[in-house]
Structures are given as C-alpha cells and as structure tokens.
Write a structure and sequence with these properties.
With 260 residues, the chain is an alpha/beta fold. The chain contains 9 helices and 9 strands. β1 (2-7), α1 and β2 (31-36) form a beta-alpha-beta unit. The chain is elongated. The protein starts with a strand and ends in a 13-residue tail after the last helix.
Length: 260
C-alpha cells in the first residue's frame, strides 16, 4: 500500500516513522510519503488560508494549493487511490471502515487546519476518485494530522504480514469476527502483584472454564462500558450471555468472577 499525507505541519507525522510502521516500510508492506502543502504555494508568504465567505471566526484553507498538490499526487498513476479527509463532520471511523481501507492500494490524506478546507476541494475530487470525509470521534482536534495517524495505524496493522501473529487480530475489540464485544482483561506473571492475584480460573488450564470466564468478562465490560455495542445487536448473545449480563446488571466487570 502507498500512503501520501499532505499537511502544513509535515513534522507532525514523524511518529509514523517509528516502530511497527517503520518495519512495515522496511518490509515493503507500506510506502509512506509526507508532503508540505506550502510547497504548492507561489507567494512569498506561502499563503494557505483566507477569511471565510459568509463571515465567522477563524480562517479557511484556500482551494488552490490543495488543487495543485492533489492534482500532482493523483496525476501520477492511472488509479489515483482513495482520498481521505479527516474532519469532525465526517463519517465515524470504525474497525470495519479500517478493514475496508486496508484493501486499497493507495490512500491520500488531506490534513486540514484552521476552520477546515474549502469544501470545493472534496467536491471537486469526489467527481474523479473515491473521497471519504472521516471523523475519528466526537471531540474537537485542532487539525487533521493526529486523526490521519490514527487511521493510518489502524489500517496499516491490518495489512497482510504486518502483525507477527495474524491470529492476534481475530480476538480484538470491535472486530466483527470477535462478536463485537470489548476484550476480556488480560494478565501475565507474577501471579501476585501488590496484593493483587491473577484470577484463579486462568491458572487452572481448564480451557472450557477459561473461555467461559473470558466471555463473561467481555460481556460484563461491554454491558458496563459500552452498552451501545450490545444495543447495536451486533454482538450475537447466547441465552447464557443474556443471563450473565442480566444477572450482573450494574455490577462492575472485574467484581464478577470470584478471585481465588
Ligand atoms: C480536521 C481543522 C480544527 C475543526 C474548528 C477546531 C477528525 N474527530 C475529529 N475532531 N476534530 C477533527 C479535525 C479537526 C480539524 C481538522 C479534523 C481541520 N480542524 C477545526 C472545526 C472547528 N477547528 C477530527 N478527524
């Protein structure tokens, strides 16, 4: 996959150079190209913003630099890829959207600042290529860079060969395949830490009991922390599940399983 990111703060994307993404790039799974939008300005102040039509506070990003930048980036190959524009007024980013984007051969991120990008930029390119205005959540950031990094990490780790053990992807929260429940609590050595012990059931080696305990914990966490996920009807609940969540309504997840 090729990923291009355009921003007036290209250094903001440096963290993408680190760790896993760095290795994915080394392994050729991913090529990442970060561009400074001001490279497509021509005035001595390298202007990228102007006052909003209709008045109001703040400044809006001018369409011309974006037009020149995206023409150059999309003009390179027959299939320009998918243009992603992070915005608080976008479609909510989810794991299933990440799975869809992970099938693309190329993603181009347009990271806005100020009050946002002149809307004609999205409208213009939407007539030429897939364009998605995406929000990473219902809170306000100061620009699109952090959102782009969130989306890139969520997508890149789904690329075949990215994570060492693809099985680890299967059981994750929000993964439709994993029943859409939140993850169960996890533990490792030492068995006792600051007076806290690892739940006894996990030390029995009894896979059936462990699986049941983990399902119960996942259900309780989901019921207490994300009841909206249960309401969405996506997690398929069995009768025992319903009994579990009903029996423990209002009780904190951790308190459910008796600790040995
Ligand atoms: C892109 C400019 C700042 C937003 C005036 C603050 C995504 N989930 C999200 N929250 N915020 C963003 C986001 C914010 C952005 C830009 C994304 C470009 N801003 C603006 C409108 C109100 N300022 C986001 N994805």
């Amino acid at each position: 996959m090729r990923i291009d990111v355009v921003s007036i703060f290209p250094d903001y994307l440096q963290p993408l150079e680190l760790a896993l993404l760095g290795r994915a790039r080394a392994d050729g799974l991913l090529t990442l190209h970060v561009h400074d939008l001001r490279d497509w300005t021509h005035d001595r102040h390298r202007t990228v913003d102007d006052t909003p039509y209709g008045g109001g506070a703040g400044m809006v990003m001018k369409p011309e630099p974006w037009g020149e930048a995206l023409d150059e980036l999309t003009g390179q190959s027959g299939n320009p890829g998918h243009l992603i524009v992070p915005t608080p007024s976008g479609t909510l980013f989810t794991q299933s959207l990440a799975e869809q984007l992970a099938t693309e051969h190329r993603l181009i991120f347009a990271c806005g600042r100020y009050e946002g990008i002149d809307q004609r930029v999205c409208d213009h390119y939407a007539r030429r290529m897939p364009v998605s205005e995406i929000s990473i959540g219902d809170y306000v950031l100061s620009g699109g860079e952090v959102a782009a990094m969130v989306i890139i990490e969520a997508v890149a780790r789904l690329l075949p060969g990215f994570v060492g053990n693809p099985d680890s992807l299967v059981e994750e929260s929000h993964v439709v395949g994993a029943g859409g429940l939140l993850e169960y609590p996890v533990y490792t050595k030492p068995v006792r830490w600051r007076g806290e012990e690892v739940p006894e059931v996990l030390r029995t080696g009894h896979h059936g009991r462990i699986a049941r305990w983990r399902r119960e914990q996942a259900l309780l966490r989901t019921a207490t922390r994300r009841p909206d996920l249960l309401a969405s009807g996506r997690p398929v609940l069995s009768a025992p599940d319903v009994a579990t969540s009903a029996a423990h309504d209002g009780e904190s997840a951790e308190g459910a399983a008796p600790q040995a």
